[in-house]
Amino acid sequence: MRHNRLGFAYTKKYIGVTMKTKLILLILLFSTLSAQDSYPPPSNLITIPTAGGLIRGSFSAELRLQKEGGLNFGMAAGVTDRFQFGVSFGASQLIGDDVLQWHPRPEVNLKYRIMDETMNMPGVALGLETQGFGGYNTGDSLNRYDVKAYGLYLAGSKNWQTPLGNIGLHFGANYNFTETDDGDKDISLFAGTDIEINPELALLFEYNAALNENEYGAEDISISRGGYLNAAVRWTFVDRLHLEIDFNNLLFDEEKVGYFNRELKIIYIEYF
Predict the structure, then answer these.
(1) I need a labelling partner for 151 at 20 to 30 A (CA). Which of 106, 163, 194, 227 fits?
(2) Which secondary structure element, helix H or strand E, spans residue 155, and what is its range?
(3) Structural domain of 65
(4) Which CATH number do you get for residue 135?
């Protein structure tokens, strides 16, 4: 009887240890599938901003090759771990034999992360982005890019780790106050995701609702049908150097453009 009691006690103790071990393993598994504070989400996807940003002592350089020989170059730096500042400038028909058309002014990029991402809550950032996409239109006093800049925005980002890599979800709202001569001043919405396939490759998908391009004269200028759906493949083929192939405006208006837009983007990030 004593032996049986000892054996029974040992069994209960063993079962208890086993259950604790399983619980620890479940917690660890859940943690690997949950957001990691150490993972830095991208500062932007294809065009939409995220809550991620450059840390203090880092800078990025971005070169975007656009349609009709267009080129846009931007630089940004992390002033603090929460605040980044950048400028950009570009031109249309830079490559080719057409008349060179410089954009009217340098554009700015400001971002401040209000709230850090946690296990249960997304990171949140407030920013200003005045750089639009495509050519700049001055005809009929439009004074706007083919695709408007995001302007003042509030963005949220949440990340999860999977066996393949990181999955990020990004969303937000924006108001463009610099390109309103077309008569549409509505607040717009955006969302997107980045999916790591391996440490080198990532797939990007995003949707810009472009609610500020569906009324008044803006609707006649818009080259999309119901917003801009974009996709991209980002390849980190050298440490800190990213090559990105973008497929923009997949919901293109066939009456205004013949096909979706293809662009090439080169991004370099350095720390000092």
Answers:
(1) 194
(2) strand 151-161
(3) 37-271
(4) 2.40.160.40
Question: Is residue 126 located within the same domain as residue 95?
Answer: yes
Pair (9, 99) in one structural domain = no
- 14/230 Cα distance (integer angstroms): 55
- In total, how many domains does the chain have? 2
* Residue 21: its H or E element: helix 2-32
Q: How confident is the model at residue 223 (pLDDT cuts 50, 70, 90)?
A: low
For 138-184, how does the pLDDT look when each residue is reduced to its tens digit (9 = 90+)? Answer: 876 678 898 999 999 999 999 999 888 899 999 999 999 998 888 88
CA angle at 264 for the pair 258 and 266, rounded to the nearest 5°: 165
Please state, in angstroms and rounded to a whole number, the distance separating the CA atoms of residues 153 and 188. Answer: 9
43 and 59, same domain (yes or no): yes
Token readout for 182 is 């077309």
- Nearest residue to 251 via CA among 191, 207, 205: 207
